[in-house]
Amino acid sequence: MSSELQLIHSEVLECTKCELHKSRTKAVPGEGSHDARIIFVGEGPGQNEDEQGRPFVGAAGKFLTELIESIGLKRSNVFITNIVKCRPPNNRAPRKSEVEACNPYLLSQIRLINPRIVCALGTPAITTLMGDEYSASRHHGKSLTKGEVTILPMYHPAAALYDASLKETIFHDFQLLKQMLENTETFNPSTPKSSEPSGSKQTLEKWA
Length: 208
Ligand code: URA
Ligand code: SF4
Fold this sequence. Notes:
Elements: H1 3-14, H2 20-23, E1 31-32, E2 38-42, H3 47-52, H4 59-70, E3 79-82, H5 96-113, E4 117-121, H6 123-130, H7 136-139, E5 144-146, E6 149-154, H8 157-161, H9 164-185, H10 201-205
The chain binds uracil and iron/sulfur cluster.
């Protein structure tokens, strides 16, 4: 891991910037390759993640691993993290103030890794990265490009795990992800970027 990423990792482990630090067992900064072409961003650690200090290691994690392998990659090829790095008590949704307090860590991770694609898993990650008007049900599989980073919203693997139709959808969206990755390998800066839906500017300016 690059030293700057390592520094963020250490800061997260000791962070007390929001209430979530009080109930955590271990903070979960994220893991994977610092040269990753894809970053996956989930909602927040659950019980297994909180105990182990690693992201996506429970049932949803097992499914995410399967999805990653379905496009010929391994977990070690990508980077996996969450919008909040500490587990919300009883797996409640993270509060806006908690997401805002934690967001600088995520933005730094994205800036330092400089991936081609940031994959937002589930509506909380999608709204955090793209804006409040976006959701998994309406925007899954529809990417948005800003500068060098493309954000691809998807259903959360936990939502898709037990619902056959969502499962099919998320496997399909992973094939899109594979295709997008293949296209960025021959990325040409003069290729027109997809247009930017209105209202997304403010969120995306953080990427500039
Ligand atoms: N669900 C998430 O959103 N993140 C994890 O790390 C695990 C489960
Ligand atoms: Fe710090 Fe983020 Fe944990 Fe809150 S969730 S204590 S901001 S690392």
